Queue: 2 jobs
Job 1
Amino acid sequence: MKKIIIPVLILLVLFSCVSKEKKDKTINISGAFALYPMVVKWSEEYAKENPEVRFNISAGGAGKGMTDALSGTVDLGMFSREISQEEIDQGVWWVGLCKDAVLPTISADNPFLDSVKKRGLSREEFKSIFIDGTITNWSQLFGNDFDMEIVVFTRADACGAAGTWALYLDGKQEDLLGNGINGDPGLAEAVEKEPAGIGFNNTAYVYDIKTGKKYPGIEVIPIDLNANGKIDPNEYFYDDFNEVLQAISDGLYPSPPARELYFVSKGKPEKESIIDFLKWTLTDGQKFVQEAGYVPITQDKIDEYLKKLEQ
């Protein structure tokens, strides 16, 4: 009888180890809508080379990504704004991955769209709309013939897009005025359906990366960078997604609202499968960044983050 029991026990132990190993090959990720399309692309490509690795990925905003990462609910959080000292004090660890931007948006059905494109809005005018509340009607920008109350939309969920847009306007997300909408897709839809509306979205929710054109119904408000009351030729690069990405890469589009995107965790990840995946995103995975509609980070940055992974 003992001769039977002992081999069975050995098999059970081995089975338990194998099961644990398989479980450890699953990488759970949540967070920023901005980074979600990029991470989905990476997971698909990585799984082709590493079929034993499984991914669970969900978008719910950068705030959720940070909370889930710090609580250990997920292995990695997707994060899309500057990391605060408070978060550093809580033990957050991070690596940068790529860049994108937050764009001010307007409905394609806005009756003043042509004028908006020609004139644009300056940073101070955006601040007066989104934070100060001193500009509430399109007529204040374009004259009495443009009488229509501005309907302001913002994000209801804690997110990097709102934090980054607010930072550009010298504020925080909680300073932003407007009707709160949950998620990037929801905000884009709200702006699209309201002719008097104004909002902001991450680049991947304004442009179709396959065609390079804006999604039907939504337009970008050009930023009057030199505040001279008109959009100069070098300030307009919004018709095609590749032009926007090039403007971000060249620094023509300001940062913020352009920003770096991150993976975050509670301390440096210990699972070998996660470390291997992170190294891949910063090496072989970088070839998919532009294809997915993002801007690569510099090689110096990549080297910095790879060194961080080796420490």
Note: The chain has twelve helices and ten strands.
Job 2
Amino acid sequence: MQRRSLSILCLLGAMFSAHAAPAAEAAKLRVTLLSGLNHHPWQQTTPAIVAALEASGRFTVTEVIPPSPADQAASTAFHIDLSKTDVVVNNWTDYPVKLPAGQTGVFPWMDEVLRFVRSGGGFVGIHAASFERHPEFLRLAGLHWRSAKAGDRIALDDAGKIVRTPKDEGPATGHGHKFEWKVTTRQPQHPIMAGLPAEWLHVQDELWHATRGPAEQMEILATALSPVTKANEPMLWTVSFGQGRVFMTMLGHDGLAMSCLGFRTVLARGTEWAATGKVTLPVPADFPRDKPVTVPTAPNRP
């Protein structure tokens, strides 16, 4: 089933527009937002994502809710028309679903998304959202929440050099208590990061450590220092997937985390980059630096 974002979110977008000036004279990019299933509070985060994107003035958002993978017949019959989409933003994961014996949880609509990206479309993955059981998703994401067996662990040393820990060595992915933490820019010349401060303080959020994956054709844009591992853990990165562009953010556990102006700004700029390869959206003058900056949050989805 598909549905347009609620009109109230459009009103919220107008309220927030002071924090993200629209790109002048640019045609709006078409976002397909996958939602409706996530072991994180998607009822909070989906409206927040819609509000952040539409407030920028650069996007129109269509929400798509795939069936639960526990319903094999519905999931097999479900398809996504991406012919009029510029970028897929993912806030959906099948992680919490227990599947019947023998069911893989891999369905044609997931292949349609991957085919779209591979052929040149854009993809944005947010925090926990992933196609957990799809064998190609980890390649698309580069890194994600996985056991040590799932792939290499990537961190950066204090000089910004990549430190790669092979699979089966070191910790599995995890996180400590939620707290406010600094995001450190690592690629200031990248279009998504251009104009952002070298460091900025993010609101209370989960800080994931030891994300795992193949980590192929990745560029790490920003890190955060984990109090658990004492390592600079990747927080924002890009992946080349076929002809497509992927932007991944580990920020955004819940509605509070998504109220951060830093999160909203990076999400909008990363989505524009994934869709076009360029960024026209400006960095707000009140972008956070030494203290978090928040904006009003969208109402929870019923």
Note: Residues 261-276 form the longest helix (16 residues).
